[in-house]
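During the no-cost extension, the postdoctoral fellow (Dr. R.K.) reprocessed legacy sequence entries with the updated structure-token encoder. One reprocessed record is reproduced below for audit purposes.
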Amino acid sequence: MQDAYVYQIRVYSGSGYTAYSPAAAPNCVYAPKGSTVGVVVAVRSTGTVYPVLHYGYGNWWWPVNDILAKPIGTHNGYTLYEANITLPDSGVRYVFKIYHTGGIYWVNVGGGNGQICAS
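Re-encoded structure tokens follow.
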């Protein structure tokens, strides 16, 4: 495991998606409640990795869900993985847990939990 960072937030609509830079709480990326949102992590690794989006609703810790992100392409030598969620009314806060041969590599946004707010 070499390096990883949250690359992009994708907000989907009928005509595709709009991409945003990730924001750390208390700042937000806004998306319509009930919409499909993709959280994309960029990973550079020589071995097999399993990036998991670890997210909670509103106040973050309860309840918490984990979703395995799927590979969607590459960017500047990093492999991109995307996890899709349906955005609840409360919005979400998230980090990535990247499982690799050496253990778990945690990825946050600028030192804090990433946040997506419902509009």
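The chain has no helices and eleven strands. The chain has one domain: 3-118. The remaining legacy entries will be reprocessed before the final report is submitted.
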